[in-house]
Amino acid sequence: MLDVRLMTTSLALLVALMSVALAEPVKEQAAPVVQGATEARPIRVILPAPWEPTKGQAESVQSSK
C-alpha cells in the first residue's frame, strides 16, 4: 500500500513540475512611466525597538500600578 501511495505522490509531483517547466513565460510588460523625484523616493517607516513597549502596553502597565 505504501508503494502505491509513494508512486502516486511521485507521479503527481512529476506532473506538477513538468507543467511548471513547460508553461509559457509571462511576456515582459511595458516599462513603467518615469516618476518624479518626490515619487521615486522610498518610504521609510520607523518601527519601535522590540524591547520598548508599545503605547497600548505602556498605558496598561501604568494603569495597573
Could you characterize what this model shows?
- The chain has 65 residues and is an all-alpha fold.
- It contains three helices and no strands.
Number of helical regions: 3
Tell me the series of helices and strands, N- to C-terminal. Answer: HHH
Multimeric organization = single chain
| Unreliable sequence segments | none
Number of strands: 0
Strand residue content: under 5%
Distance between the termini: 64 Å
Coarse morphology = flat
Which structural class is indicated by helix and strand composition?
A: mainly alpha
Helix fraction bin = 40-55%
Radius of gyration: 27 Å
If you average the pLDDT, what whole number results? 77
Largest sheet: none
Topology:
Layout (H helix, E strand, L loop, with lengths): L1 H21 L14 H4 L14 H10 L1
How would you briefly describe this protein structure?
This protein is mainly alpha-helical. It contains 3 helices and no strands.
What attributes characterize this protein structure?
single chain, mainly alpha, 3 helices, signal
